[in-house]
Amino acid sequence: MFVIKCPHCFEAREEEEFSYGGEAFVARPTSPETESEESWGDYLFMKRNPKGWHWEMWGHSTGCRKFFVLKRNTANHTTVGAWTLAEARKIYDAEEATA
Amino acid sequence: MSNRISHKNSRVDLNRPLTFTFDGQSYQGFAGDTLASALLANGVKVVARSFKYGRPRGIIGSGAEEPNALVQIDVGARTTPDLKATQVELYDGLVAGRTSGWPSLAFDLKSVGGKFSRFMPAGFYYKTFKWPTKLWPFYEDIIRRAAGYGKSPIEADTETYDHQHHHVDLLVVGGGATGLLAALLAGRSGLKVLLVDDQSELGGYLLSMPNILIGGVSASTWSANIINELQSLPNVSTLSRTTAFALHDMNMIQAVELLQDHLPHAARNNAQRRERLHRIRASKVVLATGAFERPLVFGNNDLPGIMTASALTTYLNRYGVACGKNAVIMTSNDLVYQGAVDLAEAGITVTIVDTREQINPEWAAKTNQLGIKVYVGYGISEAVGSGAVQGVQLVKLGSLKNVVTAKGPYVPCDVLASSGGLSPTVHLFCHDGGRPQWDDARLAFVVSANGRAKDGIFCVGAITGVFALQEGLAKTHDTIAELLTGLGKTINASGLVLETDEIAVTPARRIFNVPDGKDGYGAKAFVDFQNDVAVTDIHLAVRENYRSIEHIKRYTALGFGTDQGKLSNVNGFAIAAEALGKTIPEVGTTTYRPAYTPVSFGALAGAHVGDSFEPRRYTAVQTTHERYGAEFEPVGQWMRPWYFPKPGEDIHAAVNRECLATRNSVGMLDASTLGKIDIRGKDVREFLNRIYANAWSQLAVGKCRYGLMLDEAGMVMDDGVTACISDTHFLMTTTSGGAARVMTWLEKWHQTEWPELEVYMTSVTDHWTTAALVGPKSREVLAKLCTDIDLSKEAFKFMDWRDGKVAGVPARVFRISFSGELAYEVNVDASYGDYIWNELMKAGKEFDITPYGTETMHVLRAEKGFIIVGQDTDGSVTPFDLDMAWAVGMKKPYSFLGKRSLARSDTSRTDRKQLVGLLPEDPNVVLKEGAQLINSSDITPPVAMLGHVTSSYHSAFLGRSIAMGFVIDGIKRRDEEGNNIVYAWAEGKAVKVKIVSYVFVDAEGARHNA
Ligand SMILES: [Zn+2]
């Protein structure tokens, strides 16, 4: 029961207005037909599922209906922020680069 | 016999007597009483029988910690089980019943068992009743009846409940001394403050200690002054009778307020709520939840007349009840002395048994002055009495170790109280992940020094292990000052003097379980009264190699029950630690979970009951359907006509008639609930190509196409017909139940993977009413009302749509069919929906037009072999499993959703379960949906499961039963004579079935093309 500030509406709203959209930045392979069984299986089924910080997608389902990215700690539900997909991508890439 | 005394600061109004009954007997109490204080005033000692042994039990506590006095309040629809008598406010005419004691409180059958209690150790039920399994329901019934606990109401609840949401700067939980001070200091700074407290009046333990001086005035005056000022501040609200029972992420607190149950029936207002659930989102939270006193553990410590020392003091000072004339108080600390002095001053003979070697010299002087006898360095090994405590056996304790060094005197008494120290109420603090820490000096699990679990939670008072009032108030001031500084505000404490006249506290003795020197063969010493867990049970669990406290808890039932171990947990942890040879912090605590105290289902549900449980959606034709006598069934949120029985018809007769009328003449179905998504933009075709398995590039304006939607794993997730309105405008239909999910699915792909596609999606489900006119006479009916569309077979083909007017109303007509019949779906603006339905009914009268519902729709589509997504599919079915390769455009340039997965080694196997038709050998047998399909009628295990029946009906048109289902390699087996027999196994019977094509009617399509 946490609060999310939608980066499109600029409003902090109750979690129940939103719906979870899975791990963020799981890109669909550009050429699925050339993917191996293993790599396509990874894309479909293998998610990070960490205990701790997690980049995830949420939809503002009873609000603006936009998808955005939330960085949430799965162990205690604290959040660092919510960004549009494009904004989040930059922060995420920078973080991955230093990881 | 009355124990009521007139006491100067008592909160009970002796001028307002009240009558109530308990267990069938009538008694008198007074306004301000709880049921517990009134029972004690009337000398009622036995209020319950214990869970396992049936031992008589009395009132132990004075609030939420009470383990014994569980009562059933009120009768009929209002009856509430398992309330704690210590929390039930007395009102005139209150009817209370016992919840335990079978057959009666005076005689409990289990007490016979109690004499053999050595044979009912921890895990007794697990060990004794687990075999044979099939007798468990029988054992359970007997055990439950004997064990007690109250009865749920069997009548429908006639009262109402609601929810209220709050957004505040600061929530203060607890209206005792530190909570009141915190609320005042924050309120003076202008913050929006809410204070909640579970009692009928604010003050907390100050109500039990009214004579302490704070800032030179009595505690009762001090708190009255603060409450007055709080009430004068417009930015501060207080809620009494409101228990904060859960703390969730980001400072979301749930609290339940009891609004009416304290009032006599005549004063209750049925138009008002009985309880209200408050959902409070607070920027900051102050937990001033206080502490419970934990009793010491000793032999026969469950005899009626034994209570906590704070309860004894509370009954005296707050309620004017002397629980006895001759009191013994055993203690490990200084906390009991003020209460002992109050008792002595009220004329009660008091003896103190102090387990410590040395006692506080100031208290020694005071007690001496009042003639209170103090046994120093003694403990009580055993209480003595039959049905109630009559005396105590003392033992001399070792100075360093908790062992018996000598036998002590016997002291008679009629009430016995004990204090082993305080256990802070850390429950809420722990709900969102906070962990209390063991403080070896204070002998308690406390919230650590800085009083913070996470940002935004501040703890003050006894919860932090600060048990002295003056220190607690000073630290509250400092904590609120820090909180306000963080918000850029300054504290204003003008006029508040926080010095008290308390006597400084000296150290306590570390003792939980008083030794009796008898090596475990003495009288039973209970740790958890509600679950009858004795010291020996914890020792047994440890001997049987339980190591984790969570396991010991579950094996012994320590801390279960409606009190959730508020009195017993810390004693249990300490006793387990000693038996395990570990320290208390090494053993730790069990997990504190919501709810802190029981919450009614009514409060949790609030207004979401009955018709308001979930929104219901009705089509525009609802009133007409009702006029035609429809029975309805829920489909998602929709209420859809199920069938239209004529007088005397059951569902089978009605459905048979509806099916035949439709196949032979004309029927009509309200298909308005189908999901409709309007999609526009220059890239619509490409978007549909990616979303659907089918190809959309060639679909011409004026045409429709059936589409299969797959998830990325290649499994069918939805289906429906999509029409090309123009090159940049398509209208998609979805299943009735899947509309919202599909909309989200489309938006997600568009926003995340294909933002470059220009498409705009709008849900238009409710905009249209769809009347499906079905059957060989449908063209003739439509022709009567529609003259501007050429309805001829050549001009308006199957899978075409046309715009025109029907009965004078603009309409979009689709020539599509979910039955295999010639059919037209007439779509009009929903505001004309009821009109158009009635016009079509009038026009069809000469053909005996028959309205039909979802049941007939299901039969008709199964006769034609059409699937229903969600009934014939379950998320593990590919288009190929459905024999629908024709709906998959494998040559499309973009790799549509699910395509790659169709080539995965598992999905592309040829021996997967495949959709087939099934004909029972006996045409009168309708298979059970869900029946397993197996290879022979021999059901001796192991039996290979080949698949199952997904749809099964009686077909009136074919005069026999039909079914659809999945069979491994079914499509191949269908065509192999001799290999096409399976058996459908359900409810102990195996029925012989032939695998056939799933199209039972008009395989060549002559009817829908007519
Ligand atoms: Zn939004």
Describe what this molecule looks like in 3D:
The complex is a heterodimer of chains A (99) and B (1010). By secondary structure, chain A is an alpha+beta fold. Chain A has a single domain (3-98), classed as Folate-binding fold (2-Layer Sandwich), CATH 3.30.2270. Chain A has two helices and six strands; from the N terminus they run E-E-E-H-E-E-E-H. Chain A has helices at 37-45, 85-98, and strands at 3-6, 11-14, 19-23, 53-59, 67-73, 79-83. In chain A, the strands form two sheets. In chain A, strands 3-4-5-6 form a four-stranded antiparallel β-sheet. In chain A, strand 5 (67-73) and strand 6 (79-83) form a beta hairpin. The longest helix of chain A has 14 residues, at 85-98. The radius of gyration of chain A is 15 Å and the shape is globular. Chain B is an alpha+beta fold. Chain B has seven domains: 13-147, Roll (Ubiquitin-like (UB roll)), CATH 3.10.20.440; 161-291 and 424-486, FAD/NAD(P)-binding domain, CATH 3.50.50.60; 295-420 and 506-520, FAD/NAD(P)-binding domain (3-Layer(bba) Sandwich), CATH 3.50.50.60; 627-670, no CATH class; 675-763, 2-Layer Sandwich (Alpha-Beta Plaits), CATH 3.30.70; 768-850, 2-Layer Sandwich (Gyrase A, domain 2); 861-886 and 901-996, Beta Barrel (Elongation Factor Tu (Ef-tu), domain 3), CATH 2.40.30. Helices cover 23% and strands 27% of the residues of chain B. Chain B has 25 helices and 49 strands. In chain B, the strands form 13 sheets. In chain B, strands 8, 9, 12, 13, 14, 15 and 28 form a seven-stranded mixed β-sheet that branches. Chain B has a six-stranded mixed β-sheet with strand order 40-41-42-39-33-43. In chain B, strands 44-47-46-45-48-49 form a six-stranded antiparallel β-barrel. In chain B, helix 7 (309-317) crosses helix 8. The longest helix of chain B has 18 residues, at 469-486. Chain B starts with 12 loop residues before the first strand and ends in a 14-residue tail after the last strand. In chain B, 50% of the residues are buried. The mean pLDDT of chain B is 93. Chain A binds chain B through residues 1-3, 14, 19, 21, 27-28, 31-33, 35, 37, 40-41, 44, 57, 59, 61, 65-67, 76-78, 85, and chain B through 248-250, 252, 281, 432-433, 454, 712-713, 744, 747-748, 751-753, 895, 899-901, 903-905. The structure holds zinc ion. Residues 6, 8-9, 60, 63-64, 66 of chain A line the site of zinc ion.
